[in-house]
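Ticket #563: bound-state structure for 5'-O-[(L-methionyl)-sulphamoyl]adenosine.
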Amino acid sequence: MRRHGWRAGRPYDCRVSEQPAPSAPRQSTGGTKAFYVTTPIYYVNDAPHIGHAYTTTAADVLARWHRQRGEDVWFLTGTDEHGQKVLRTAAANDAAPQDWADRLVATAWLPVLETIDASNDDFIRTTETRHTERVQQFLTGLKDAGEIYEGEYEGPYCVGCEEFKLPGDLEDGTGDFAGQQVCRIHGRPVDLVSETNWFFRLSEYADRLLAHYEANPTAVAPPSAYNEVVSFVRHGLQDLSISRSTFDWGIPVPWDPAQVVYVWFDALLNYYTAVGGGDEPGTPGATQFARVWPADVHLVGKDILRFHAVIWPAMLMAAGLPLPRQVFAHGWLLVGGEKMSKSKLTGIAPSQIIDHFGSDAFRYYFLRAIGFGSDGSFSWEDMSARYTAELANGLGNLASRAAAMVGRYFDGALPAPGAYTDAEHALQQTVARVAREADDAVEVLDFQRAIVAVKAFVDEVNHYVTDQEPWVLAKHPERRERLATVLYTICESLRAIAVLYHPVMPKATTALWDQLGAATSLGRISGQPVGEVGRWGQLPTGVPVTKGAVLFPRLEEPAESGT
Ligand code: MSP
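RESOLUTION: The complex was predicted; output attached.
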């Protein structure tokens, strides 16, 4: 039996030298592989706050964008239900852990997906049999391959992080915790654990992991996250305790049911179990696995980067499975300069914002205001200001003016354009460039750049309206063809804007699509390929353009009364 813990850490072992494990190509044997995107699975110790909704929103925008690229997409999210954190919360609420998890999933985690308009294809719960059975099977495979052995763990454990801690992860407590060592993230004392556990030979994978990062410089993103992970692994890895024996809320270790699987080992496997990992060839699970594996991107908050960029690929290497193409670590939503968190009671529920601004504005705001990968603070004033300037006055006003003018001057039927001038040619070139730029930006998860590019186009079209003064043209019957050209140009620009913004603001853009008469003439907005957006002249002339509900009502006015 070997002894472990931060006091018994092994030095960096440079014996292992293997070939890098390049990311798998985007083709599987059955044809093009589906784009597989995941969120972390969320602890059910409490209800979601906007930090959780932020990750899911980003994943949803990415999934919708790739669907509009015409790709097969699989978008997975779910809940992480085992471990001491959930067990303690359930106990504090006089509930059995399974009942507690059921209640939280039904009343909080599933409803928030509706609230933020998520289009996930699946929702995995770690207490489902499809998960627990495959985790046991995976673990047995690793044990049979000699990757798991029995040892003793002794050291600090933070239940908030559900993580075995190293000395550098702790700091001196203050206030109530003065004189104690506390977790840097949770600011609370850690437990001292001394247990006989099962260990995974993580230390053996340091060199292979480093070779993997080197061969795949975007396997961990953004670059700051990549550098952090490489530097962490260069300092050497310790073997990982992957079971716990002092409580029973978890998946039993198949060969030693007195122990339960360590919650992170259990949770990381959701990405594998939810898509049929390990299933017999010819079964529906195996077909699904061949279709989606490996994941294209695991979106995670920066606090859980190491689990995903170190432990998870090592687990997959041990099992001989292709590695995810990318783990992307986004920043934190901060409150008073600190990570918004349930434990510090600083969480804002998504509905607190969405009830006022709507789900589209929520989705837009967080991806537009905060660079994906950086921290950011939520401020009601900033959100209000951007809502008014960019959505209500910017896009909303453009859409309502266009519909009103087609209604007034052409009886609501989109007129055929006459000869285009330089002003129209400039917009046509811009739209093609913006479509490409937005696509390039989303490819590297730079949602902010994509949105800013589209927003700049909205501004340009608004300037075009001001410059062309269609209301003046309308006073001169001999300028009717010019008026038609201008109105067609505005509506056709709105067609492109609606398609490009659809992944970010699905509700408002669907309404805009209907107002443009595009649903009947061009089909569903979600089926419009982003690659075709820049092709000018798609809206057929004569379609009914109608002034529907205001897309972004001014918030100081009742929603129905806006114009
Ligand atoms: N259960 C684990 C994840 C297991 S994945 C195999 C977990 N759950 S969590 O509920 O605590 O956090 C889930 C995600 O929410 C993490 O990516 C975390 O970074 C994110 N966020 C939690 N608070 C956040 C902010 N204040 N801001 C942004 N994201 C935040 O960790």
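RESOLUTION NOTES: The domain at 382-532 is CATH 1.10.730.10 (Isoleucyl-tRNA Synthetase; Domain 1).
TICKET STATUS: resolved
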